[in-house]
Every structure is written in C-alpha cells, then in structure tokens.
Amino acid sequence: xxxxxxxxxxxxxxxxxxxxxxxxxxxxxxxxxxxxxxxxxxxxxxxxxxxxxxxxxxxxxxxxxxxxxxxxxxxxxxxxxxxxxxxxxxxxxxxxxxxxxxxxxxxxxxxxxxxxxxxxxxxxxxxxxxxxxxxxxxxxxxxxxxxxxxxxxxxxxxxxxxxxxxxxxxxxxxxxxxxxxxxxxxxxxxxxxxxxxxxxxx
Length: 202
Description:
By secondary structure, the chain is mostly helical. Helices cover 80% and strands 0% of the residues. Helix 1 crosses helix 4 (70-95), helix 1 packs across helix 5 (98-115) and helix 5 packs antiparallel against helix 7 (134-155). The relative contact order is 0.10.
C-alpha cells in the first residue's frame, strides 16, 4: 500500500513537473508573440530576429526555439491578429452597442494593418507561395464584419444597405492614405466620418 502510494505520489509529481515547463513555454511563446507584434507594428522596415529577441529581453536562441524561422514568426503573428479580429467582433458585441462595436473593431483592423508594416515582404512571399491562405483570411474578416452589421441592423443603429465588402474596401482605403503614425489623428477622423455614413438616415 505504501509502495502504491509512493508510486502514485511520484506519478502526480512527475506529471506536474511536465506541465510546469509546458506552461512556462506557452507563456514565453505568448510573450515573444506580443513583443514581435509590437515591434512589427512600429518598424519602418522588416526588423531582424535579433532585434525582436533584444526587445523581448531574451537570447536569439530562445526566440529560435519557439520560432525556428522568420516565416514561422510572421505566420504566428499574422494568425494571432486574425483571431483577435474574428473573435473580437463577438466580444465587442457582448460589451458595446453594435455601432460602437463596429467603430472599435475598425481600430483593431487598423492595428492589424499596422502590424503588416514590419513583415510585409515576408508576408507577401508567404501568401504568393500559398503558405498563408489569404482568401480564407479575407472570408473570415468579412464574416466578422457581417456579424457586427447584422447586429446593427437588428438594433437599428447601422444601415441595412451596407455590405461587409463595402466596409472592408473603405477601411483599406483609409489606412492606405493614413499611415499608422497618424492612426489617432487623420485615420481616426476618417474612421469617424465612415461611421457617420454607416448610421441610418432619418
């Protein structure tokens, strides 16, 4: 009985020891992902992997342990941002009226566009090679916009004749003419004007 208890205790301890490193590794990966996103967002060009590791306060080997190639890091950041946009639509609707949720979602979209600045070259190559399914991403983003539009139509605070494609095209246009550094100025003003046009007339 004692042997079984001892073996059982050792087994539980061993399992805990396995879980702890895995949990630590997951936290470290999330931390690196957050730092990489921030660096990509603020960079004028594509930052080096070493620059990202330095910003995160880790050695380059640690970064490569989690993301063996630049492509794997870019893919992780890109997919994380897409998830934030798609899940963000539902989360915002749970917190705000549809019109306010749409305006806040536009800011999230702007962050996603800004993040591409520091990884655009690699991203385009990956899309061209098929490593990233751009068409699928577009479908997911249009679905997120539609989710908010449908809620807005039902609530009566968003127009019923606007499509997700209309909004996506408008957002791309706004963030093309208003660089990320102007997000809180020119881009914010243009987004507010867009929102005025999305509200029902009369």
